[in-house]
Amino acid sequence: MNEVLQIDTTQEIINLIDSTLPIESLQEKINEYHDYEIAKALVEMTKEQRQVLYTLLPNKNLADVFEEIDPEDAFWILEETSLSVITRIFSEMEVDDLVDILGYCLDEEDKITYLSLINVSDRKIVKTLLNYDDSLVGSIMNNTFIDVLKTDTVKQAIKKVVTEAPENEFINNIYVTDNDKLIGALSLKELISAGNNKDQTIEDIMSENLFYVYPSTKNEDAIVMMQNYDFQLLPVVDKYLNLIGVITFDDMMDTLSHESEMDYSSLAGLSEVSVDERETVWETIKKRMPWLLVLLFINLITSSIIAGFENTLLLLPTLSIFMPLILNMAGNSGTQSLGIVIRLFAKNELDEKKSIYKHLLNELLTGIVNGFIIAVMLFLIVIVFNLTRGIPFLDGISFALVIALSINIALIVSTVSGTVIPLIINLFKLDPAVASGPFITTINDILSLLIYFGLATLLINTLT
What kind and span of H or E run contains 354? Predict the structure, then answer.
């Protein structure tokens, strides 16, 4: 198998910036690197090194580099950059990328300053998009697209594409409008293929089978649509079907990555999972402490259950040996179920009652089968454990049955609860990912202890 050679160009670029090469030679060498590579180096540079780089790159290249940087990193870099350089960057940056960066500006006065540096034609659009929630299409919408009239000829449309292509990030799709209303679309390939008949109207070759979203559409819904139909662009319309923007596959990929991080952070019981080297210990504590406090009080219930069965433990102290095993197995099973549900929600595969019931049945059967297999194995382990301690087979079989039944029922209950809890949370229009792993584990601890000690108490009452 061939391996892709990974070369760290960050230090190479920084060394070039620090070199004494003439400006012309330096520009030539910097231009040999990809925007992504320059962006990685820019984040690692000192303020003085960045100033040198700004003088080497033309406005368009500089904007392209900043578009490759994580928006949060781009914002803090801009905070220490002169307004003249920011104006150069903003003049060539795509609207959706401007919105992503300015979304990290919390100070209203600073936001007004930054907005004033954006050209007038884009400023109003950026202000509008900044008002959309991060979870909605409007927050990642791009207002640069190519549209033609249905009455345009193929020749006129090709000329317009050639003219406007330099100003557009993607020209894969051309949209057809009538009084600003979206009525059709065609691909660049279809337009070029029709070039032999240049007097043919666009209305004759356009497709009317349209897919579109609204600014208020959830990002997850747009992602599913783009994945299902293999779209690279998706038009955004207002309630009157006026074409107001597009969303691109690269924006969707960024959004999907962000959603995955958020779901993972929720599963981990954190308010945020992203790692920031500039983050202070206090900021990290603030992210983790809320969940820890909630889990502290829930775990008090676990402790009170153990205290309530103190007499059972005194009469059958061996119970404590297998208690951690049962709790951990139940927690693991519940977290597995939760992870699957969160993924299904992210892919919008649990929107119908039929699919929900089917998944619940699958998880129940999974819990029963897994519980039975683990219970049989644990029954045999406990028998061997008893024999090694000198307990006869018949004397230890009752205790082994309690352990086996406990793990069996606990795994069934935990598997189902790992599915049911996020479903219930979703019914209340909340993000099901908040049913995090630690939360599910703690709930399953409570249920498993009740099952375990309940069966053990029945065993003792039967024997006495």
Answer: helix 353-388
Helix (H) or strand (E) holding 235: strand 233-237
Nearest one of 206, 226, 208, 228 to 217, comparing CA atoms: 226
CA 445 to chain centre: 29
Full domain range(s) for residue 15: 10-131
Strands 181-187 and 243-248: unpaired
Q: Parallel, antiparallel, or unpaired for β 181-187 and 173-178? A: antiparallel
Residue 458, beta-bridge partner list: none
Residue partners of 166: CB distance under 8 A and separation at least 6: none
Spatial CB neighbours of 367, under 8 Å, sequence gap ≥ 6: 333, 411, 412, 413, 414, 415, 416
- Provide the CA 275 distance to its chain's centre, in angstroms: 15
pLDDT given at position 343? 74
| Same domain as 327, residue 452 | yes
Residues 6 or more apart from 268 whose CB is under 8 A from it? 436, 437, 438
Q: Among 455, 433, 443, 417, which residue's Cα sits nearest to residue 327?
A: 443
Which CATH number do you get for residue 455?
1.10.357.20
This prediction has a pTM of 0.54
Low-confidence ranges of the chain (pLDDT < 50): 1-6, 268-271, 273-275
Question: What's the sign of the alpha-carbon dihedral 171, 173, 174, 177?
Answer: negative
CB atoms within 10 A of CB 422: 28
Locus of tokens 């368009």: 60
Segment 404-436, tens digit of pLDDT: 999 999 999 989 988 888 888 777 776 666 555
CATH number, position 225:
3.10.580.10
Judge whether 456 and 319 are in contact, CB under 8 Å. yes
- Rounded to whole angstroms, the Cα distance separating 269 from 278 reads 22
- Does residue 181 lie within any of the structural domains? yes
At which residue do the structure tokens 């790992």 appear? 418
- Sheet with strand 181-187: strands edge to edge: 147-149, 173-178, 181-187
Residue 145 Cα distances to 124, 132, 212, 322, angstroms: 17, 20, 14, 64
175 vs 386: CA distance, rounded Å: 76
DSSP 393-446: HHHHHHHHHHHHHHHHHHHHHHHHHHHHHHHHHHHTTS-GGGS-HHHHHHHHHH
The DSSP bridge pattern shows strands 173-178 and 147-149 to be parallel
According to DSSP, the residues that pair with 218 across neighbouring strands are 136
- Pair (285, 240) in one structural domain: no
Same domain, 165 and 110: no
